Amino acid sequence: MKIGDLVTRNSYDNDLIFKIIDIEADVYYLKGINVRLYADSSLEDLRKYDGEVDIEEEESFQERIKEKKDMERDEYFYLPGKVLHIDGDKEYLDRCLKFYEEMNIASLGVVESEELIASKVYSLLEKYKPNIVVITGHDAYYRRKGNVNDLSSYKNSANFVEAIKEARRYENSHEKLIIIAGACQSNYEELIKAGANFASSPKRINIHALDPAIIAVKMSLSDINKDIDLKNIIESTKYGSSGIGGILTKGTMYMGYPR
Q1: 125-129, 178-182, 235-239: lowest mean pLDDT where?
Q2: 168 vs 118: CA distance, rounded Å
């Protein structure tokens, strides 16, 4: 097997598709194709993915999340909220930006390593003045490091917490700036306490690469004068409330008349 090959892991019942991104000695470093997860493996545990079986039923998931309300046929006009998406992974960011474009959402993407987002987010918010900011990339909970409630047990949760605090320093109101933060297995409670409107991961599970963008689109297309359907928005993500949770707030879309 070589760098760039798609593989699954036998020890995890071949449940997720990974790409080999590096090989050092006998260790194969992997990145999830559809989940925001890094992993490593021995060659013996890997099975080459031949593409014959769609493990994550990706096509049906894509169709479901792209269902959108018909805003083209009535006499009103609509101004969805603008999204700033800051991501530690360029490939995932590109997928999210494509999704925003398909959903007709104004968006701007920035690639930044998770440990540097906190130092950059305030100036980015000042410059672009979005209604919604997504702060994501990669994360993981390491059981061997300690308790599930300890931020030091996570790859990047502490970095996400600091980035959220900086974003809240820019705009303290949860209504005026929607913050969506976290990645696979992130410390959900600490991200919410830091000021996020939505965060992963309540059950410390992996999340889909598009999950933060799905929440951003739903918030962008929700009425600014009405409380959101919180449960419906969360359940629109790949793994529902196990992967992402949030707080009740209003949307960011203005409606005008006449068209």
Answers
A1: 235-239
A2: 11
Distance between CA atoms of residues 214 and 234, nearest Å: 9
Q: Are the C-beta atoms of residues 66 and 239 closer than 8 Å to each other?
A: no
- Cα 69 to Cα 92: distance, rounded to the nearest angstrom: 25
Q: Phi then psi for 17, rounded to 5 degrees?
A: -95, 130
Residue 43 one-letter amino acid: L
User: What is the layout of strands, in order, in the sheet containing 38-42?
Assistant: 38-42, 27-32, 18-24, 6-9, 46-48
Is residue 238 within 8 A of residue 62, CB to CB? The reply is: no
Cβ(35)–Cβ(207) under 8 Å? yes
User: pLDDT, tens digit, for every residue of 53-99?
Assistant: 454 455 556 666 665 556 666 888 999 999 999 999 999 999 999 99
Residue 122 CB neighbour total at 10 angstroms: 15
Say how far apart CA 230 and CA 241 lie, in whole Å. Answer: 10
> With 0-12 CB in 10 A as exposed, 13-18 as middle and 19+ as buried, what is 76?
exposed
| Cα 121 versus chain centre, distance | 16
Question: Kind of pairing, strands 198-199 and 178-181?
Answer: parallel
Helix (H) or strand (E) holding 215: helix 211-220
Q: Pairing between strand 38-42 and 27-32?
A: antiparallel
- Closest by CA to 97, choosing from 146, 44, 136, 151, is 136
Report the predicted TM-score, pTM, of the whole model to 2 decimal places: 0.89
- Token pair of 100 as six digits: 């925003």
